[in-house]
Design goal:
The chain is α+β, with helices and mostly antiparallel strands. It has 9 helices and 25 strands. α7 packs parallel to α8. Bound molecules: fe (ii) ion (FE2). Its EC number is 3.1.3.2.
């Protein structure tokens, strides 16, 4: 405890000095942005950098975004699987809502003519008629098991009525076998209506013996031509599962865009686990609309399985990693529920079982891009010490639409016991890349405002291979734009020993 307070005091002093340094840096950078405009070399460490202009959403009629023309009126769509606890996987999907049926369509059309205040009275999530069933098995077409979900839900915002939102967790009545192909189909909105068959491979057993394991990492995806390029490259990379660090659909209040985004990613999310944390674009802003309505209604966020009281932050174990999803836009002060939960979650990690400790958040602690500069400073001050104390290996973030990788850094200074920070908010959203860099800080190892994605190969308990793949490079390109081997430092190893000793005591 004494050491913690001492470190906190030192942190404050160092933080003040760091703030002064960064303030001077910002002034210099603003001058540079003015004076160096057009100088590509100042904005990137890639000699091949070509700035891409922002693009809008793909049209909702695009073949990847529109409801499949051959799907019947009762067919399920927008299928997504995620981890739901040890040996369990959640399946989420959407079927046409009751408002589209004849018995509801008149009320639906009439509601469009109501004053906005009355239309908002229809807001919120509610139970909706329907049945949620997943049938699955170990052979294609042979569904030996079946699981039912609770009564599905739906929600309305203004003129928008969602489809019926289904969720079923499979593996609750006995864990799913590890590293096994599961063939499944989900129920439609009519009796005897089923989806086509999908398949996914269950995660391996948790532990270093399950390494190597490839994680995909992506941020700020959106639904543009660039988003599709990112997904195409991601498929070529072949990750076993994906972490998305927030800013998913860029629906921004247009809830039809949640449907189009889910259709766009469904060919991937129906076949491998995709785990999310939320960004600012998941936050509902319309007056009277509950926050995070679409995000928390459409996806399974396994907070209860990790002891979190909020779907906005949670954790899970996967292969040889403990993965933490933090919430940048919920209370994150030092005395907050999130900070308290984080401290307990990190303290409970068994590094012998999950040697790799990964943290995801949306707004970055470290970025040398002018856009969104220091937006996460309060969260950094309240949580960075925890991440260092518990020897977190890598912190992924998005928000800034550019790629940047740091060296090991703590409070702005080199520290081999601190995490490295990787910003990967370059998934391809409609706002375009963030191209204005500050002069490069000492902690910044690599940066470039190009769209792309990353993969993290956890090779064994001590070594991992990180790769950043640009969309501008061929899908079949052998070399990543940025590739680095990560070796867990001695203090990370020591931390593992401390954890094991504490667990054994
Ligand atoms: Fe963002």
């Amino acid at each position: 405890m004494y050491l913690s307070r001492s470190r906190s005091g030192m942190e404050t002093a160092m933080g003040s000095a760091s703030f002064a340094r960064q303030a001077l840096t910002v002034v210099l950078a603003l001058a540079c942005v003015t004076l160096c405009a057009g100088s590509q070399g100042d904005f990137s460490n890639s000699l091949h950098f070509v700035r891409k202009a922002p693009k809008g959403h793909l049209p909702a009629t695009h073949t990847r975004l529109a409801r499949h023309p051959s799907a019947g009126p009762s067919a399920p769509e927008q299928i997504h699987i995620s981890l739901a606890g040890p040996g369990a996987v959640a399946v989420n999907w959407v079927t046409p809502g009751p408002e589209t049926s004849s018995s509801h369509s008149i009320l639906h059309r009439l509601s469009r003519h109501l004053p906005i205040q009355l239309r908002h009275a229809r807001l919120g999530r509610r139970l909706c008629p329907g049945t949620s069933i997943v049938q699955y098995g170990l052979e294609s077409g042979v569904y030996t098991s079946q699981a039912r979900g609770a009564v599905p839900t739906c929600y309305s915002v203004g003129d928008y009525d969602s489809g019926v939102l289904h969720e079923v967790v499979i593996g609750l009545d006995g864990p799913l076998p590890a590293s096994t192909d599961i063939f499944y189909r989900v129920s439609g909105s009519g009796a005897g209506v089923w989806s086509e068959e999908y398949a996914f491979t269950t995660p391996p057993p948790v532990g270093p013996a399950s390494l190597p394991y490839r994680l995909g990492v992506i941020g700020d995806l959106g639904q543009t031509e660039d988003s599709l390029e990112t997904l195409e490259h991601m498929v070529a990379s072949g990750p076993a599962s994906v972490m998305l660090v927030g800013d998913l659909s860029y629906a921004d209040g247009d809830h039809e865009r949640w449907d189009t985004w889910n259709r766009m990613v469904s060919p991937l999310t129906s076949r491998s686990v995709w785990m999310f944390t939320e960004g600012n674009h998941e936050r509902e802003r319309a007056s009277g609309v509950p926050s995070w309505l679409a995000y928390t209604s459409r996806f399974h966020l396994p907070h209860a399985a990790s002891g979190s009281g909020s779907p906005l932050y949670y954790s899970y174990d996967l292969a040889g990693a403990h993965v933490v999803m933090l919430g940048s836009y919920t209370d994150h002060g030092a005395d907050s529920d999130q900070a308290e939960w984080l401290a307990a979650d990190l303290a409970a990690v068994d590094r012998a079982r999950t040697p790799w400790l990964l943290v995801n958040m949306h707004a970055p602690f470290y970025s040398s891009n002018l856009n969104h500069l220091r937006e996460a400073e309060a969260m950094r001050v309240s949580m960075e010490t925890l991440l260092r104390q518990h020897a977190v290996d890598v912190v992924f973030a998005g928000h800034v639409h550019a790629y940047e990788r740091s060296y090991h850094v703590y409070d702005g200074a080199p520290d081999p016991c601190a995490p490295i920070y990787i910003n990967i908010g370059d998934g391809g959203n409609r706002e375009g890349p963030d191209t204005h860099w500050l002069p490069r800080p000492d902690w910044s190892a690599w940066r470039e405002p190009s769209f792309g994605h990353g993969t993290l190969d956890l090779l064994n308990s001590t070594h991992a291979q990180w790769r950043w793949v640009r969309n501008k490079d061929s899908v079949t390109a052998v070399d990543a734009a940025d590739a680095v081997t990560l070796v867990r430092s001695e203090c990370h190893m020591d931390r593992g020993a401390v954890d094991r000793a504490a667990a054994a005591a």
